[in-house]
């Protein structure tokens, strides 16, 4: 990624959706849409030829769906960060996307500012998960919690400081860094630092794993 501009490829089979995303992203001075794809196969090919920083992948596409394309991208262009675009009815795919190395999940009805923020976060190497998607997935997974999982989670969380546990609890609620900061009277940058520290201490790869751990631990 260059210091000034984040290069983005948009992959969605609906031209109007692509046009809307392009309009939102190009309104940001630090984002450039370098190519558009109508299916997952095109997205992988364009990622190879244009070397973008971030690829936005719709899940439901012809020829190759977004999740399959994500796996191909990780093998063909591992340095490219991929954000998955989804609807509420598809959030069961979050775990597969994270397992394939996706940089995050964004709901299609997200606000324009959230879309821009997600692209910036992905380009910066951070995982981004829409708060709504996070809450839904964590609730689903936590419903299958066992006593053993709870005990293991409590032991892991015990290694955190009181402030870190407080931040982790808000991750379990699916709050963004900004919302957590307002709740805790901390700056967004400070929350981000805490989140990075928490992920490292708990050996979690992303916010969803940390959020699930928070639920398992009863925070």
From TrEMBL:
Domain named HTH luxR-type: residues: 153-218
TM spans (from-to): none
Alphabetized PROSITE patterns for the sequence: HTH_LUXR_2, RESPONSE_REGULATORY
Top-rank lineage group of the source organism: Bacteria
Residues that bear 4-aspartylphosphate: 58
Residues in Response regulatory domain copies: 7-123
Pfam family, one: GerE
Keywords: DNA-binding, Phosphoprotein, Transcription, Transcription regulation
InterPro entries: CheY-like_superfamily (IPR011006), NreC/VraR/RcsB-like_REC (IPR058245), Sig_transdc_resp-reg_C-effctor (IPR016032), Sig_transdc_resp-reg_receiver (IPR001789), Tscrpt_reg_LuxR_C (IPR000792), WalR-like (IPR039420)
One example GO MF annotation: DNA binding
UniProt KW DNA-binding keyword: yes
SUPFAM superfamilies given in the database record: C-terminal effector domain of the bipartite response regulators, CheY-like
Name of the molecule in the record: DNA-binding NarL/FixJ family response regulator
């Amino acid at each position: 990624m260059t210091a000034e501009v984040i290069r983005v490829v948009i992959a969605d089979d609906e031209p109007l959706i692509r046009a809307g995303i392009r309009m939102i992203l190009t309104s940001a001075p630090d984002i450039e849409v370098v190519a558009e794809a109508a299916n997952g196969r095109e997205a992988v090919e364009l990622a190879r030829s244009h070397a973008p920083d971030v690829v936005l992948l719709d899940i439901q596409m012809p020829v190759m769906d977004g999740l399959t394309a994500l796996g191909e991208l990780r093998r063909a262009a591992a340095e490219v960060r991929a954000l998955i675009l989804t609807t509420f009815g598809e959030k069961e795919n979050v775990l597969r996307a994270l397992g394939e190395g996706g940089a995050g999940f964004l709901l299609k009805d997200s606000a324009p500012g959230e879309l821009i923020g997600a692209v910036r976060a992905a380009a910066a190497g951070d995982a981004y998960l829409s708060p709504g998607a996070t809450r839904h997935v964590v609730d689903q997974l936590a419903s299958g919690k066992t006593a053993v999982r709870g005990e293991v989670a409590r032991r892991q969380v015990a290694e955190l400081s009181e402030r870190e546990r407080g931040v982790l609890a808000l991750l379990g609620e699916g709050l963004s860094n900004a919302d957590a900061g307002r709740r805790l009277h901390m700056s967004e940058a400070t929350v981000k630092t805490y989140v990075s520290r928490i992920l490292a201490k708990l050996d979690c790869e992303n916010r969803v794993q940390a959020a699930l751990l928070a639920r398992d631990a009863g925070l």
